[in-house]
TrEMBL record:
Pfam families: DUF347
InterPro entries: DUF347
Organism name: Glutamicibacter ectropisis
Record's protein name: Membrane-anchored protein
UniProt keywords, alphabetically: Membrane, Transmembrane, Transmembrane helix
Record-annotated membrane-spanning stretches: 29-47, 53-77, 89-109, 115-135, 155-175, 181-200, 207-225, 237-257, 283-306
Length: 416
């Protein structure tokens, strides 16, 4: 009898172990490494530029784009939650979509509802704090290495979405309030993220340092993206959104493919056990990707196509009158053309031409708005009036002409 009892315990323990193994979920998120931060920052930039491409260049508009991205995010989250362990391509696709939706939530508050960035920053800060408080009260831990249940993963993604919205609002607020250029924004936000890592090494809570850095990746990614995409007249390098997006996407695919290979080779996090193939190798990959990005951007900036575009832009603005927002002559040319078509009664042609105004204005926002947010808002409101009049269900020539003339007056006043 005494010989059977230990055997019975062993069998029971084995059964319990099998049950725990069948119900226990492996880690669903990646290890926080240099590669993690590299992909995160690049994903932020690509997510933002792709949303702008759909809303402006394709012409879907902000609301349809947001609806589409919400649908794609829902699908991605369903797939992510159904996986039993960290799958790099699914995880990072979800991050990109969350970055798009988080950014568009803040833009909706600011551009559509007219909510002040001070207010939206405060609201999202409070919401993120609430997520963390409820998360901790429910799970008694906020460690990133503890994301191994459905509930914890739900809190994790809620925190990430709110962090993106907060990063967008706080980043825009800092850029506008301090008048930071793209280069200075990149340097300052990058330095703050490095400072979070140093603080964690010196004793700061790793959880606190991680989430502060995570919020800061949004304005850093936006600054890097704007630095590369914006016209040289606005302080950028003039690569354009399409070329920058392709460049970033290539680097992301390479790094995520490497992550996918590591998962197959080394496995994933299980109860905090790390298996990544070596920290030095990870640092080398992250550094190599960053160096490749800088070299490629430099080569593309120095290409004849980009130089020709930059020279043309510079020549067109040499004799232009500079106001608080810079050179508005390109917009004035489009508005004059639209006004002429409205006066002739060709509202269909005016509606087609005003699309060029919308695209150009939205593309220049990152470079112009920080120069003078108030004046930018004045012109943005006048442009919205023009768009609303021409895109009405039954546009009226008198209303369209009134909106066009008003916009011409605004441009003239801001060009003095």
């Amino acid at each position: 009898m005494s010989n059977e009892f230990p055997e019975t315990l062993t069998m029971a323990q084995a059964t319990g172990a099998r049950r725990r193994k069948s119900t226990e979920m492996m880690m669903k998120v990646p290890i926080v490494t240099a590669t993690f931060w590299a992909i995160k920052i690049l994903s932020t930039t690509v997510g933002e530029t792709f949303a702008d491409f759909l809303a402006v260049n394709v012409g879907l508009g902000p609301i349809p784009t947001t609806g589409m991205m919400l649908g794609l995010l829902a699908i991605a989250l369903i797939i992510q939650f159904r996986t039993r362990s960290y799958t790099p391509w699914i995880y990072w696709l979800t991050v990109v979509l969350v970055s798009i939706v988080g950014t568009q939530i803040t833009d909706f508050f600011t551009d559509t509802l007219g909510v002040s960035l001070y207010v939206s920053t405060t609201i999202f800060t409070i919401l993120l704090a609430v997520v963390f408080i409820v998360w901790y009260l429910q799970e008694r831990t906020l460690k990133i290495t503890s994301i191994d249940t459905v509930k914890r993963e739900a809190f994790y993604w809620a925190a990430i979405l709110t962090a993106f919205a907060l990063g967008t609002a706080a980043g825009d607020l800092a850029t506008e309030a301090l008048g930071l250029g793209f280069m200075w924004g990149t340097i300052i936000f990058g330095t703050l993220i490095v400072a979070c890592g140093v603080a964690a090494k010196l004793g700061m809570s790793s959880v606190t340092a991680f989430w502060i850095a995570y919020v800061l990746t949004r304005p850093l990614g936006a600054s890097i993206g704007d630095l590369l995409t914006q016209d040289r007249n606005y302080g950028g390098l003039g690569l354009g959104a399409s070329m920058t997006s392709v460049l970033f996407l290539v680097i992301i695919v390479i790094l995520v493919a490497r992550e996918q290979s590591n998962v197959r080779k080394y496995g994933v996090l299980i109860k905090g056990q790390k298996a990544t193939g070596g920290q030095r190798r990870d640092l080398a990959w992250a550094f190599g990707a960053s160096a490749a990005l800088v070299i490629a951007a430099s080569l593309m900036t120095g290409s004849p196509l980009v130089q020709q575009s930059a020279t043309a832009d510079s020549a067109s603005g040499q004799h232009a009158t500079q106001g608080p927002l810079g050179d508005l002559s390109p917009f004035s040319t489009i508005v004059d053309d639209v006004t002429a078509k409205v006066k002739s009664g060709d509202l269909a042609a005016a509606t087609t031409r005003v699309k060029d105004l919308e695209t150009s204005w939205d593309s220049a926002e990152a470079g112009m708005k920080p120069k003078s947010p108030t004046n930018w808002g004045t012109m943005d409101k006048a442009i919205d009036g023009e768009l609303t009049a021409l895109r009405a269900g039954q546009p009226n020539q008198t209303d369209c002409l009134k909106a066009s003339v008003n916009l011409q007056k605004v441009i003239k006043s801001l060009s003095a």
